[in-house]
Every structure is written in C-alpha cells, then in structure tokens.
C-alpha cells in the first residue's frame, strides 16, 4: 500500500483540475480519479472498483470535487444526479471511517435560504429550493457523522467551456443581448484562488463547515457589468428577475467568510479582485 497526501476525485472538472495544477506546482504528492486522463480512470458510479483503489492506496486528505451541477438535469433526473451528488458521498464517508482520511466535500452556496442583503453564516438556515440543493444538503449529512471532515460551501467560476464567466465574456465580445438577474446575490470568486484556499484549509487541523467566497456580495447583473468594465467593453443586457426561470433558484446566497479568514490567517479577495483575476485569464 502506497501513502499519498491528497486524492482529488473529479480531477478533470473546473475546480479539480485547478487543485491538481497547484499540487503539482507545490510538488505535493497526490493521485487523481476521473473518467479519463487521471491516475485512475473510472466511472464514479462504480463503487466496487473505487473500493479496490482505496485498498491499494492510502491518503491523508481526500477532496471530492465530483458533482452534477446542472440544475435542470437534477430536477428532471433526480435519481441519476443523486448517484454522484449523494450516494458517492455516502460511499466516500464510509471509506473515510475505514481508512482514516480527512474527507473534504465541495458543497455550494445554493443550500442557503438567505435573507435579503445579508451574508449567510455557516450556521444560517439551509433550504432545498430545488433538487440540486436537495442533493447537496443530503450529501452534507453523511459527512457530519464523521470525526474528520470539511464541508466547503462555495461559489466559483473560471475559464472553461460552459462556465458562467465563459458565457458572459463570449456574450460581451459578440455584443449579444443577455438576461442578467437583478435579484440574485452571490459572493462569487475566481476558481484559481478558490483552489489555493481549499488546499490551505485542508492542510490545517480544520473540521466542520466553512464558507468560501469573495468578501462581499453583488447581484449577477452588477457582477456582469463589472466584468465588462474590466474588459473595457460595452455589455448589452436586460435586467430581469431570476424568477423567470422555470426552476426556482436561491436569491440571497452571499457568504460570510469571517470563519475561514480567522482559520487560515489571511483575507479573502474582494469581488473586484476576483473579477480582475477572471478577466486576466481571457486577456
């Protein structure tokens, strides 16, 4: 049996790939699991093969970045989405007990019920406003039974096909008129910073639930306008309510980051800093 510091599950996704890049840069030993182009190529629904992998390798920290985040898919295909978003997490929780590793679950700000213009704290009320949020809340319950766990509730974006920032910048550059939500507030941060902080937090003697986002919040509309200003380009948009969506979304998703700042000893970026970092990837 070989020992490693980290295992990254879902290593080909936006966040997982950034975490792996940083681990390589810092020369921290790790392994990866994904469907392809990883150390252990596997359909994550195959728990038997994943179990054999844990029998052959030992880890200090396992970070689960795998998730189905498409809200429409989760609503229509709840049972299928639950395999990755819930059942995989339950399996990894059992592995954590058996093999004594810290289990880090990447959750979402979408679990919060939220109060208008108020940042959500880790003890704020959670609410399954849709099936996606339901799967993430259920997943968190499995970790709370463990002695050594981290739940990271976050909202990030970055340069990759079909991400929010990718859609936004392409729309700005092609002068496409887009709908922007004027009543959905988030503390979105750039994925590179998010990945750095997750590694730092996971490396500490930390346990429980932590919010991870920018230090302040803004509406999706104002976020997009700020991106356009940093690009020095005009943005064509219609200001709309997120209520136009067929499936309900959380509106007040801003994150209080006091707890994580105190733990790791440095400040989270402001929204403007996160936007500058995101825009740099496209210049």
Summary of the model, kept short:
The protein is an alpha/beta fold and 283 residues long. The protein has helices at residues 14-25, 47-56, 71-76, 78-99, 131-143, 164-173, 191-203, 220-231, 258-264, 271-280; strands at residues 2-9, 30-34, 40-41, 57-64, 102-106, 149-154, 156-157, 178-181, 185-186, 189-190, 208-212, 218-219, 237-240. The chain contains ten helices and 13 strands.
Q: Can you tell me the CATH topology?
A: Rossmann fold
> Span between N and C termini?
45 Å
Strand content: 15-25%
Total domains, how many?
1
What is the helix tally? 10
Q: Give the overall form.
A: globular
Major β-sheet strand ordering: 3-2-1-4-5-6-11
Radius of gyration: 19 Å
Helix amount, in percent?
40-55%
Looking at the overall shape, the CATH architecture is 3-Layer(aba) Sandwich
Order of helices and strands: EHEEHEHHEHEEHEEEHEEHEHH
- Unreliable spans: none
**CATH classification, class level:** Alpha Beta
Please give the largest β-sheet.
7 strands, parallel
- The name of the CATH superfamily reads NAD(P)-binding Rossmann-like Domain
What are the SSEs and their pairings?
Blueprint: E1 2-9, H1 14-25, E2 30-34, E3 40-41, H2 47-56, E4 57-64, H3 71-76, H4 78-99, E5 102-106, H5 131-143, E6 149-154, E7 156-157, H6 164-173, E8 178-181, E9 185-186, E10 189-190, H7 191-203, E11 208-212, E12 218-219, H8 220-231, E13 237-240, H9 258-264, H10 271-280
Parallel strand pairs: 1-2, 1-4, 2-3, 4-5, 5-6, 6-11, 7-10, 8-13
Antiparallel strand pairs: 9-12
Helix pairs in contact: 1-7, 4-5, 8-10
């Amino acid at each position: 049996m070989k020992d490693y510091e980290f295992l990254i599950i879902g290593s080909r996704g936006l966040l997982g790939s950034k975490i792996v890049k940083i681990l390589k840069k810092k020369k921290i030993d790790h392994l990866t699991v994904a469907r392809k182009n990883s150390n252990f190529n596997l359909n994550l629904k195959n728990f038997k093969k994943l179990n054999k992998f844990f029998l052959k390798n030992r880890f200090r920290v396992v970070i689960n970045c795998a998730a189905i985040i498409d809200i429409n898919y989760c609503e229509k295909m709840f049972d299928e989405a639950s395999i990755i978003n819930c059942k995989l997490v339950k399996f990894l929780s059992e592995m954590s007990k058996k093999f004594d590793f810290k289990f880090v679950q990447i959750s979402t700000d979408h679990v919060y019920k939220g109060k208008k213009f108020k940042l959500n704290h880790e003890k704020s009320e959670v609410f399954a406003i849709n099936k996606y949020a339901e799967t993430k809340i259920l997943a968190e319950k499995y970790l709370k039974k463990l002695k050594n766990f981290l739940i990271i509730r976050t909202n990030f974006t970055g340069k990759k096909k079909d991400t929010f920032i990718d859609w936004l910048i392409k729309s700005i550059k092609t002068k496409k008129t887009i709908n922007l939500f004027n009543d959905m507030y988030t503390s979105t941060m750039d994925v590179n910073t998010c990945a750095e902080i997750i590694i730092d937090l996971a490396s500490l003697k930390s346990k429980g639930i932590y919010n991870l986002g920018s230090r302040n919040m803004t509406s999706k509309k104002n976020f997009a306008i700020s991106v356009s200003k940093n690009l020095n380009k005009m943005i064509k948009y219609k200001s709309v309510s997120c209520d136009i969506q067929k499936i309900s979304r959380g509106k007040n998703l801003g994150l209080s980051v006091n707890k994580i700042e105190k733990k790791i000893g440095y400040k989270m970026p402001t929204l403007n800093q996160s936007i500058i970092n995101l825009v740099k990837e496209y210049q």
